Sequence to fold (212 residues):
Amino acid sequence: MSSKKAKKDDSIDFTIDGQKVQAREGWTILETARANHIDIPTLCYHPALHPWGSCRLCVVEIRQDGRTNVTASCLAKPAAGMEVLTRSERVENVRRWVLEMLLAECPASQEIRDLAARHGVTATRFAITDPAEECLKCGRCVAVCNEVVGVRALTFGSRGVKKKLETPYRVPNNMCIGCGCCVSVCPTGALQKRLDTVRGDISRRTGASFAH
Fold:
């Protein structure tokens, strides 16, 4: 069997917004959409990191075998004959709800305000606890520190509405090597202002294992 034939047999045929697409083995719906230049908004997703579906902004509606459901496209795998809708009424309702929550969670973020406005969301019904907050707690910074850098200098403390970005044991630590990866993947720029609280006084570090 030729390599060309094998590749074709491994592909999955389905539709996104009525457009016929092919997914390679292992691709998610989001990856397939991006390969076909179909826009699905994302915040927590980054191609260098394992997807975890934290923000739920990338939801799509899936129709198959007479059933429909709304799910995160960064986690969902396509199946043959599946119909995917990225702009259905159900999908847009979920996205508006998510964006309202984000406007309350990080009202100081210009990126979030701009993204919300593009979806027709200019105000939030949810209570704003910190008008100066920019961090949306998407988890990109924690993931890149753990998965890519491998030093685990960042974590999330508490749960639910009290969830916050912290360092282990809530103190600046020598695990941070000052690489700036967390800053580079932050979708709102909130990490730039918090980097010194994570890494402590980097000027006091010596040795090959630390940045200078």
